[in-house]
Amino acid sequence: MKKRQPKTYTRLTHPLVRDTRDEPFRRASWEEALDRVARGLQRNRDAFGMFACARATNEMNYVAQKFARVVMGTNNVDSCNRTCHAPSVAGLSAAFGSGGGTSSYEEIEHTDVIVMWGSNARFAHPIFFQHVLKGIRNGARMYAVDPRRTSTAEWAESWLGLNVGTDIPLAHAVAREIIHAGLANQAFIERATTGYEEYKKLVEPWTLSLAEKVTGVPARAIKELAHAYARAERAQLCWTLGITEHHNGTDNVRALINLSLLTGQVGRYGAGLQPLRGQNNVQGGGDMGAIPNRLPGFQDILDPDTRLKFESAWDTVIQPHYGLNLTEMFEAMEEGSVRAVYCIGENPAQSEADSDQAVRRMRQLDFLVVQDIFLTKTAELADVILPATAGWAETDGTTTSSERRVQRVRKAVTPPGEAREDIDIMCDIAARLGHDWKYADAEAVWNELRSLSPDHYGMTYDRLEEHQGIQWPCPSTEELEPTYLHSRLWEKDPQRRGMPAPFGIVRHDPPVDLTDEEYPIRLTTGRRLDSYNTGVQSGGFASPLRRGEYVELSPEDAERYGVVVGEEVQVSSRRGAVVAPVWVEPALRPGLAFMTMHFPDEVDTNSLTIEANCPIAGTAEFKASAIRIEKLPVATIVR
């Protein structure tokens, strides 16, 4: 297949401004650029939204959400967590009270059964997958649940190839089999959970035969997974965007959590739930309060005592209601109730579902400021562009991984040109708007965070250095907590056990974008090994891994449409159309196609995907669009 030339992104080294969106950008001084930002935000104080950055440090995210709440007086702050793992946070919080994965990476090396559900970890999380391989070498059995037979599934004892959007029926059938086989952990259920009888009734109709018809997974494979998971002394259930990026993503997460509650596979070393994050600090961004419903340390904004604590520390009044999430802010742009956006290190013009609509909405804004390291597609829409330092190697601070581990990052190189630290930029804008924040360095920001977040109080920079990272919660400066969460559920003393974990009563809800005669192919999206987010940091570079973007079709569908590898086809959905070369993939079943989400410049996949959002988490259904494939004239074949 001939490779298309990917776009090479330009590193930002100087502030850029323009008077109108029709004009080209011109270089400006920092003083002029910051003054323009202050004026643009000032005139839109009542209609402001902040996009924070899941690749930047915890300290940056802390200051960003503080800027939104103190300087602009709003809780409208969010990040790409909304695009990927907001359903994980919502589901885990509803069950256990906190939104982090319950286990450490190390534990998967010492477990007995690993369930990879909706996760091609070998490609999407290759570092984590090394821990998985160690677990397999130590004797763990792995089960892969995914519509595609991925490279991860090649390492599995069994692959359960379900139909897209049928995760809840499959989970319910697994649960029913566990119950009917007498494998439910009744002692744990009675001691640590609520709602079991209602849950038992909920899953009862999902027999193995019915589940096979709905999900496409053979009944014997469902039974095998159920018995392996329930009988294991320790089992880990891992998931990624194949579970969360659906219009019912939170319900999908709750369905998986239910399996752990049914069997007691949580709250013990080696037994737990692991949502795998796609960027270095998605977990940390939420932990720092860069979300619309929680203050730093994942403390609820609706709690009066929590608000009082932060109001006293920040000398401000915090709005006693949830702000708008990323999805809702885009809807508010349409309505005109969000007219100014401060976007730090995010590229929603390329990463949002129905990206053409997202671009149109951002063009309607009165003022858009983008603070980034590259001239992204979103930056091209801005009024002011501020060049920042990279969150790795050019900045001091901390980040938090999927396993809740806070680790130090250190400045190692000098940033190019006039690029400045994110925190310094925000503090200068805050000063222009009447707030004089003086932070000597990143450690000063971190210590302010520690004083307000019990989960982080014991994590001084010195201790982070000493232990090479610490997992939260860490409320003490003397001791470390276990690597796993929710051991309280196993306490015999009800007082120490705390609130029980409720079973989630969730029901099957098929994908919104239905296939039919006009759009007969189900398109699902994900990451490939060479893809990283929207391609800004990894696109435009020579790589033996990178083949460019293409649409994967099954051999049967390729034959049906009369196309071969490298031939360009038009891929159309109810929202848009793109031209892409074909790759024939034997691992795909007939009727299923695959493309890379967000990433490619060559093909705008997100113009195809649907903006059908989870009502709880606001995450779009990237994983289930209906498309058609049209063969193009011979002259367009890529040779």
TrEMBL record:
Asked if the record carries the keyword Cell inner membrane, the reply is: no
Q: Which residues form a coiled coil?
A: none
CDD domains, sorted: MopB_CT_Fdh-Nap-like
Record Pfam families: Molybdopterin, Molydop_binding
Q: Where in the numbering of this chain does the Molybdopterin oxidoreductase domain appear?
A: 11-431
The Molybdopterin dinucleotide-binding domain is annotated at 522-624
InterPro entries noted in UniProt? Asp_de-COase-like_dom_sf, MoPterin_dinucl-bd_dom, Mopterin_OxRdtase, Prok_molybdopt-oxidoreductase
What keywords does the record list, in alphabetical order?
A: Iron, Iron-sulfur, Metal-binding
**Protein name, entry field:** Molybdopterin-dependent oxidoreductase
